[in-house]
Amino acid sequence: VYPNPVENYFVVSGLAKGTLISICDMAGRKIKTVTATGSKEKIETTGFTKGNYTITVSSETGERYYKLTKL
Q: How far does CA 50 lie from the centroid of its chain?
């Protein structure tokens, strides 16, 4: 997941097609969900408020979690 901190977008790489990417705020509210169509996804954050978010990447091999800061 890069860049971090983020301004307008971030990229998740190393994905399998169909991987689910969920973005939640620190209160646990799901802000956005994206299904990967390739090995890399660019996700826009222009509508997000400043603060910290949790990114969950779910695939057949399990889940990975990342912390993201929106400037």
A: 15
